[in-house]
Every structure is written in C-alpha cells, then in structure tokens.
Amino acid sequence: MFGYYLDLALRSLTRSKVLTALMVLAIGLGIGASMTMITVLHVMSGDPLPGRSNQLYYPQLDPLPLKYQQSAYGPDPRLNFTWPDAMALLAAHRAERQAAMAGGALLVRPAQTGLRPFYVDGRYATTDFFAMFGVTFLRGQGWSGADDDGRARVVVLSEKLSRKLFGTNDSVGRTVRFGDADLRVIGVSADWQPQPMFYADASAKVFDDADQFFLPLSTALDLKFDTNSNQSSWSSFEGDMKSPVLTWLQVWVQLKDAGQVAAYRQFLIDYSAQQKALGRFERPPTQARLYGLMSWLDRQNLVPADVRLQLWLALGFLLVCMINIVALLLAKFLRRSGEVSVRRALGARRRDIFLQFGIESAVIGLAGGVLGLVIAQLGLWSVRHRPDDYAHLAQMDVSMLIGTFVLAVLASVLAGLLPAWRACRVAPALQLKTL
Amino acid sequence: MQLRPILSSLSHHKLTASLLMLQVALTCAIVCNVVFMITNRLEQVTLPSGVDEAGLSMLNSESIDKNENRLARHAADLAGLRAIPGVTAAVAVDTLPLGRDESSYGTCASAEDLAKAIAARSMMREGLCVQPAVYGGTQGEVGALGLHLIAGRDFRADEYVAGSGVSVVILSRALAEKLYPGKAALGQSIYAGGDKPIRVIGIVDTLLRPHLRASEVNQYAMLFPMLPNDGEVTYLLRSAPQDRERVLRIAAEKLEQLSPERIIPASSIRTYTQMRDAYFQRDTTMIGLLLASGLGLLFVTALGITGLANFWVQQRRRSIGIRRAIGATRGDILRYFQAENFLIVTAGIVLGLLLAVMLNLVLMKHYELPRLPLYYLPIGALVLWLLCQLAVLGPALRAAAVPPVVATRSV
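ok -> structure tokens follow
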C-alpha cells in the first residue's frame, strides 16, 4: 500500500509542478534559515569539557561595599576574586582540587634569529589547574605547590608555541624569554582549546582564544606581568595586585558529589560571615554563591543578542512558511474531494485516505529538508565568514544533520495533518452526487 | 459590490480563509518590526563621526623597549611619517572615534557638582556629572581629524603635557550643551577625574565616542592636549584618498627602519573607512539578514495568496460559468475575487497591527529596541494591501476569462 500511495503522491505533485516547487521552496527556506541559527546556537552553548564539566564549580563572593553602584557599562566586580579571597579559598583546601588563575598576554623574544618578538596569550595559574581541567602533557609535567610558594621561574608551553619557538614538542629544560624574564620549560601540553574558554573572564574572546603558555600565578605577580582579565576596584588600590579592594582572579573548584557541593556552599557562607565579622565584607554572607560550570556559562550570556534575534527571526519565518503550506495543502486536498469520495465509495477507510495524504505531505517535507540542508550549509558558510570570534565554530555535526531532516519532515507532516484530516472527513455521498 | 454572497461563500472555507488571515497577520507583524529594526540599524551605521573620513589612514606601533623615551620616539616617528610624499598631516593619538578603545572620566560642570557627586558616592546619580570619552594626541589632532571647530581655538604648543594634568580642554557640542545648558561653555571650567579645574577653550561640532552607547551619550567626548605616553600608540595619517594604500605601506616600512624595537600588528594597518566598516560589521550583517527575511516573508505570503486563489478559481469554474451565463460581466467576476481577497487581508492586517505592537513590546523588553512609531502601521497595512491585490490579480483575471458556456457542461 505504501508504494501505491507514494506513486499517487508523486503523480499528484507532478501534476502541479509550479505549486509543488513553491511549497518545497518555502519549507526549504524556513528549515534552512532555522537550522543555520539553531546550529550556531548549539555550538555556542556546547559543553566545553564533556565528562568533567559536572564536577567543576565556580564560587562567587560579594566583597563590595553596601553603597557600591554598578555601572551599566562596566563588568560586575563580583565575577572575579580579590587576591586575599582567592588565596584563602585555596589555602582552605575544602574541595577535591582548587585553582586560582588570570589571563595574560606576554611578549616573547625568541632566541633564534629570523623570528621577530611577538605577543602570546596564556594563563597564570596555581598547581591544580592541569589536573582539575584534565590538560594532557606531551612532555614533562606541570609545577608543584612548592613551585607556587617558591615563585619558581618555570613555564609550561603548548605544543604550538613549543614548535614555533624550538621546532619540536620536546623543549623541556630549555629557556624562553617572556618579557624581561627567563623561564625554564618544565612541560609541553597538548594543544588545548575548550569551546568556549569557560575559565577565562568576560574580557576574553572565549570562542577564539587559546592559551599558549601556563606559568605559576605567584611567579607572574613577582615579575609584575600584566593581566588582561577585567580589573575592578571600588577603592584606591595603588597598583597593588594583592589589594583586598581589587578583583581580577578566577577561582575554579572540583567537587565530587552533591554532599561536597552542599558543604562547599556552606563553607563559602561561613567564610563570608567571618570576613563580615572582621569588618571586611559589608553585605550579607548569604550573597556567596556556587555555580556549576554549565549554569555559570548560562549566566555569562555568551550568545550575543544579535544571534538570538536571528534565531527568532528564522523561527518566525519558518512559522509563516508552515501556515502557508497548511493553507495550500488544505486547498489542494479539498479540491480532490471527488477523488476521495470515489475511493471511499470503493471501500477505502478513512485511515487509508489519511495515510495517502500524509505520505504526500511527507514527500514535500523530505524534498524541503534536502533543500533546507543545502540552504543551511550556505547559511553556515556565510556565518563562518563573519569576523566574530564564534564564526569558525559554525559547522554542522551529525546530530544537527539528522536534526534538519527530522525538523523538515516533522514540520511538513504537522503541516499535512490538518488538511489530511479534513480530507478524510469528506462525506462521500454529497460529493458523488455532484460528479 | 455586494459583500453578502462573498461572506457566505467564505463561510464554507472558514478554515482555509482563517489560515490565510493568520499568515497575513504574522507577516504584517514581523515585517513592520523588521523594517523598523532595519531603519534603526541604518541610522547607527550612517552616524556621522565628525571626522573627515575620506583621506584618513592609520597604523599602531607597540614599543617593546621598556627603557625608550617614548615622547622622543613619537616625535622622531612623526617627523619620518610627515616626510612621506603625499602625507599632508601626521599625528600620534591614543584612540579614535569608533576605535573601540575608550578611556573616560567622570566629568562635572563645576566644583560644587563634583563635591555633591563625591558625597553621593556616584558620578552618575541625579545627572550631576557625565562620563565623556577623552581623546589625547599630539599637536594638530583637531586638524588631522578634520574636526569642525565651531567656537574658540585649537590647543597651543605650550599647553601640551605628557600624561595627565591638562589645564585646557576642547568639548564636543553635545557635551558642552549637556554640561552648561543655556549658557556659553567657552571659558567655563570642567572638573574631570580630579579637583583641578580645566578651562574650556574650544568646541567642536560633531565628535563620536570610540565606543558607542545609548544615542544621547554617543557624542559625549572631549579632547585633551595630552601627548600619548604609552607603549602603544596610533599614528594617524592624512593624504589624498587614492594615496592611502601607498602611504600606509611606506609608513610601516619607515617605522620599522626608524626603530625595529616595536611590533606593528598587521591588523592595525588600515584606512579609517576600513575601521568604520569593521566597527559596524555586525550591524551590516544584521541589516542584510533582516532585509532578506522581510522580503522572504512578503514573497511567501504573496505566493500563498496566489496559490490559494488559483485553487479557488479552479474549484469554482462551474459557478463562475453560471454567474456569467445569467448576466454577470467579466468585471463583476474580477471584482468578486478582489473583494474576497480584500476582506481576508483586511482581517489579517487588523490582527497583524495588533500583533506588531505586541511584538514590538517584547523586542523592547529583550533587545533594547525603541518603541515602534505609529506611522509604521498604516504604511505596513497599505503595502500589504497592495501586495495582496497584486498577488490575486492573476488568478482573478483567469476567473474573469472563464466563458459562460462552462455552465452548460456537465463536468
């Protein structure tokens, strides 16, 4: 029966070629536009560290004075940590692992001739950074807690930077000149670029940047390396990065289970209460928060407003296309009332008629899906040519590919439901009389 | 024209007609807002910067020698750049209108306002003070940018200082009017980022900030006679527009020769036009997308109307024939279909205008869009009426061409 209905559908569709083409075009445009934007949103809100993200948490304290006025344009100072708070959380060791970090761009002066000095992005961090985020080492390893305390002049290079500087990934033991300091390479990490770069603060291009070096936070402070994280202060700090009124550090912790999460949340509140008792914090201790990685990213609003607007536009377009197709199919199916009545009079059940027209609309959907896929690829190609930092991510993966077809067929079968239902309710006797 | 028969005929196609109406309504709502968004973005993209943009080009230089005397370096670089044939002006600046990097100071019109603002622990509260962007640069910046001085004078050579501590300022007109409403700003003293008065010696007409904000503060900007003293500096060159590429190429080579202890990022070597285009790139993309989807919607809706009218004409061939046989003229048939379309579309437009206003309210809440001006609604309605009448014309003419003899045939 299925083959027969398919044959009927194709005959019916080829009878009015222009109309069929227009319906396919409409659904193709709607699906193509929607899938382009859904794909962009999908890649932008992906999990940066699958398998690990559910154990990573971002604490947040509120050291601001009661009277502080948040500017509409500046970043929220509470998104980052002051040096004393970050160090207190690290020293408390209440989590499985914990690390403080900040971003920096440093001038590298290659020793060999022929390579001009250049700036490179990297991270100042504490020892747990590598184990907590699961950075893999090709050679050597990270630094120890003792290195943190001793402000060791050491650095971990990414494979890319190691190859650029030394032509090999085995540069352990060699020396690189960062700014005015010589640092000894103790490890080379595999190139690592979580998408988005969740652990950086809002000042980073989180979809584009990748860290090329890692060095101890204490060393960076000792050498007075600049940070490119947002620095917010609510009182004069006179250039002292260890000031209690300047936030610039990010702190991440790894917690095993719900019990640890609850305990850590309580710890943050206790710490805030203690600081309040000391007169440093002014706001209620319950302002302290603990966010899971994915909910932290949600709060950061990484998807630009324009992209969200484009998605709504595409979905609105799809909706209008759908209504259009419902109306056209309805008119088309009802025009064939005579044919339906004859089939019904000859013994076809309602569900046969329903199936026949359902298949006809699914065929349109499938054709629209193919066209939509082509249009979505064109759309993604154009997104990739935008100069935004997320542009290079706009690729369709297998799940999105399947999603396109599912959406197309679903949309057109949905669009065909109402017309097919109306068509199978046609009263045969009434129609046959007029024939 | 009798509407009764049309209405009773439509009542047999309630579902189809209401679907069509819904489509027209949605199209009307979306297209009104899309057109409004396009006009908004166009306004943004075509904002005048106040700068004479055509002949400007620029490049950045980042010093990597910490012990260098920067003022001397900049002076030597500028002398070299001015010697390039075709360069009519060269200055070193810290940032440019639409250059994105912005430094701003809390600025008050008088010492009393400053004291009040400090007491309130907020520069912005109660509108006492504003946060204008500050431009610093070497002598000749006003001329090199091509700014239009409407009152007062340019800075004198002896007024330039390195770093902070300036004693005179040139305001943009918008800032002058904000700080000193109803009186002459020239000769007054502002307080910016400190308690030392800074005398206003000039006012320029239009001057955009490096980074745009709300439209009313976009022109809050001022010029300080402040020599750039950072490791990173922008060299601004004025030449004939056709010389820009050549001048930039030579300038990069020349700076490299004058001192190799610097980095000139390739992305910073560009004309002002390129910088402006890059600044508004997202808006231009958005305009393109909005335009495409607006036209797409109108196209799909027109398509739906033509398609549906076609079906109805085919379906009613017999009754058209009968009407023609009993005396209806071609014009009657044509007008019948036009009136039918008009009825459906009008219902759709009424609903659509309501939806348009609601959609605008949602957009205002989530996307900082201003309120939709009411005159968009009648214009939108008129456009849709015309489009839909055009869409139905083909099928209606075909219906009018149905010969009366059809009535006598059995099928």
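The mean pLDDT of chain B is 89.
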